[in-house]
Amino acid sequence: MGGHFGTSALMRHLEGKHPMEWGRGKFNKLHIANAIEVEDEDDEEMDESVAYPDVPYGNFGPADLSLYSDMPDAMSQMHYHMPMEYNIESEEPLMDGSNVSSPMSLPSFKGTLMAPTNIKMKLGGRYPPNHPKAQAWNRNITELICEMALPHSFIGSKAFQKFMARADLQYTVPTRSFFSKRAVPQVYEAVCENIASELKRSACPYIHITAHVWSADLTAYYLSLTAHWSVMDPDADQPAERKYALLCIKRFPKELTEVSIQQELIRQANLWLLSNALAPGFFISNRDFNLVQAIKGANCTYIPCFTQSINLLVKDFLQNNRYIAGMLAVARNVCGHFIHSARARRILAELQYQNNLPKQSLKLETVPHWTSTFYMLQRLLEQQKAVQAYFLMHKVDTVDIILNPSHWNLMLSLVDLLQPFEMTTREVNSSSSCLSQVLPELRYLHIFLKKIRGHFESTGDTNGVVIADSLALKLSTDYGVSEMFQKEEYVLATLLDPRFKGRIEAILPPDSDIDHWKQVLVKKVKEVMSSSSSSAQGSRTSCQFRDNGTAEPELFSGKLAGAEVGGPPWRRSMAAAPLIHKEKSLIEHLESVGLLASKSTGASLSTESHSACVMVEKYLQDNKTIGAKDDPLTYWQKRTWLWPALTKLAVTYLTCPSSSVFAERVFGSPQVFAGKPSSSEAAEGTERSAFLKVNLENFPNYNPPPLIFSSDNAAEQSDSDDGGL
């Protein structure tokens, strides 16, 4: 093939015989046969000529460089100045409208950044810093680092550099300092703006807060705060939407005190709420002493975490029964035997196949929560035949690894007994749960324990009767649980839920004064009606913060004034109807015991001729209800114009979660917070990454900032210290 490369004959030859090479050009090298391995440089800044050698690749390997050595400048310039187009389906850059496919799809930024048609490719085939594809990669890598809780040193790793060389050889990977000092802070600010705009759309001015204090090694403490609200448009067909966001995660390098917590609560309230004409609603947290005192000291309404209340109750029940404690010790040894022995697991898998059991590993308790114990026992019962067959085949010397028949019977009775407790824990931890579920589900637990005791008694299960009586006594005498039936926030939330208002007499204790709670509801509605629409003040449902620049609450105490769900179902070998139908939620079970309104029973509640607002009377007499699993906000969304003040009050109570698990989940990746940050800047970077890890999932449609990495500031960034991130 003689002649000059720039001749028209060669051009026609390339276009006719090698259309892919002709269309894709020298710089589009996505079909790579041999990956370029990028060395891990000590300096963060990489020399492009070393890191990404300018070697053209064809379909079967490197091309001969000599073919391109004599390319005229005119043709080279013409080639690089071709406008880039993007196919919305393949996300691949197309040259002159050619439809060149690629096995890898690049991230789409169509419609979010500047149009790519006016941007020229760099000489050498690289994206310029402001190219949409370069910014798309920068954004996606930033989100990847945060959502996966990866250290920023991951950017310079050989594996990541190799991956990016294969994914898009035209993209220059910025330094890790670019991500830690520019990209993450800019995305953080953009997500903050998105959350603030969503908060302004709240259906009521009160935003509920869940709070949690966590410590890994007692050398530092972290405080996390999440906000909960709802957005609903009475004129739109779209249903009401519950939202929550992580407001902050704050590290305290020294001992965490009531004063420091309270100061941070006030600072965050001023930053997120008061500046947007909003106010804090209820504060939900566990029973950490300093945290509870800080909330109460700021004149805020404290709601105990329902999940923790059930956890403490059941854990105490399990630990104080010596028969249960003995069975649990053996069960842990059995599970540990299989988990720590590859040979035992292999034999167990064969036995599972022989007994037509699902091929699943046994579980050990992984978290300090009683549900972890429940799932361990549930899995053991599911695999009972295989486990028993294993120990019949392999004799063991120690007795503490053998589950005898009494152990299996007790295990079965215990799982039956705790099933509704697991269901209510799982349901109140969901994002759709609200405060109104607590009292009905607690009342159901009381009723269930009586029913299952009778079931155990009728089948001659003596151990079942004993443990049912023990748990029933603990549930009825637990002060924290009993107090919930007298707490105003729980009762009004239940009364404002159309699913439960007509059954309030069955839900509350027998000696409850229903008329009293009706009058309290009327009083609250009158407060809403009399309050100014532009003011966030009003009832006791919120913190009375004073926005005077000093960030102090109106009321301080004297000392502060200066300062895995379930597994495959298994059943007993008896014909009795099950007390719990696992295919139903616990709320759906409430109808069978008269705690839930239905179409057949109606939802109205009789009212006497007391001095109540007409609005409240009409609501209590309204016979319409919703499904057991429907969101009660949908009921109120359709009645916003009919009962505006009552709707505002209902939304205030029904958007409040009953668990602080949302703030606790922030620490689901404890390795992110392990170790002491080398500087305050590194600590702030960790907090921002944790903030984005949670909020990017809930608010993915934020307005992306321009993430431009230029070689002009690369040297400046690579010289800075990341603190090991």
Topology:
Layout: H1 8-17, H2 19-24, H3 48-51, H4 73-80, E1 84-86, E2 93-95, H5 132-147, H6 158-167, H7 176-199, E3 206-214, E4 221-231, E5 241-252, H8 258-273, E6 279-285, H9 289-297, E7 301-304, H10 306-319, H11 322-339, H12 342-354, H13 370-382, H14 384-393, H15 405-428, H16 438-458, H17 462-477, H18 479-484, H19 488-495, H20 504-507, H21 514-530, E8 545-546, E9 552-553, H22 586-589, H23 614-621, H24 632-637, H25 644-654, H26 661-664, H27 680-698, H28 714-718
Parallel strand pairs: 3-6, 6-7
Antiparallel strand pairs: 1-2, 3-4, 4-5, 8-9
Helix pairs in contact: 5-7, 5-27, 7-27, 8-9, 11-13, 12-14, 13-15, 15-16, 15-17, 16-17, 19-21, 21-25
Could you characterize the architecture of this molecule?
- This protein has 725 residues and is α/β, with parallel strands linked by helices.
- Helices cover 45% and strands 7% of the residues.
- α11 (322-339) crosses α13 (370-382) and α21 packs across α25 (644-654).
- The protein is globular and about 80 Å long.
- It starts with 7 loop residues before the first helix and ends in a 7-residue tail after the last helix.
- The model is unreliable at 1-7, 24-117, 532-542, 544-576 and 606-612 (pLDDT under 50).
